[in-house]
Write a structure and sequence with these properties.
It is a single chain. By secondary structure, the chain is α+β, with helices and mostly antiparallel strands. It folds into two domains: 4-75, no CATH class; 89-179, no CATH class. The protein has helices at 89-97, 133-143, 151-179; strands spanning 4-8, 11-20, 25-30, 33-38, 42-44, 46-49, 65-69, 72-75, 110-113, 116-118, 121-122, 128-131. The longest helix is centred in the C-terminal third of the chain and has 29 residues, at 151-179. It is elongated.
Length: 180
């Protein structure tokens, strides 16, 4: 990896610094040839090893390089794929079985996913709160809160319901583990 990049035909290419002239011109070696560039078409690139990060090049045992151009750092690494969201029809049924989480509402519930990942993807099924159709569609999606509550209170109510459901699920799993 070189310590200098020069702009040639609108693209930055690696070069080796040969000399800096008092006039501001920089002499570099590019593609085996010595060339002169104005300082505005030259940038310094510093390299450093990043320990514990998997390199793109499998032959690179020391780890990948990080190029520092000014204050910008761009690691040359493969990013891991995002894990797939948890999907479970059985869990969604257990969410809906408890009834609506809004106080004094005894209507049957549906599983309302708390967050979207964007692009019409639903979030993890573990982040589903039990809401009846009225509170789900008319209140939450229509007005953004439940009757007699602000949005923060409504969110807190749903997150508390999710926490109770997950705690009950964890208890069931631990019971099954101890019976074996």
């Amino acid at each position: 990896m070189s310590d200098i990049q020069v702009k040639r035909s609108g693209k930055w290419v690696d070069a080796t610094l040969v000399e800096r002239q008092p006039s501001g011109r920089v002499i570099v070696r590019v593609d085996g040839k010595r060339r002169g560039f104005d300082s505005c078409d030259v940038r310094e690139v510093r390299a450093a090893r990043v320990p514990g990060v998997r390199a793109v090049d499998p032959d690179d045992e020391e780890g990948p390089m990080v190029r520092s151009v000014g204050t910008v750092r761009a690691p040359i690494v493969e990013l891991p794929k995002a894990p797939k969201p948890f999907r479970s029809k059985a869990h969604l049924r257990s969410v809906a079985d408890g009834g609506c989480c809004v106080p004094l509402c005894r209507a049957p519930a549906v599983a309302h996913h708390m967050e979207n990942e964007g692009g019409s993807k639903k979030c993890d099924d573990r982040l589903a709160a039990p809401l009846c159709d009225e509170h789900h569609i008319e209140w939450w999606h229509g007005k953004g809160h439940f009757p007699g509550m602000d949005r923060i209170g409504s969110l807190a109510l749903m997150w508390e319901a999710i926490a109770r459901l997950l705690a009950a699920e964890l208890d069931r799993l631990e019971e099954g583990r101890t019976k074996r």
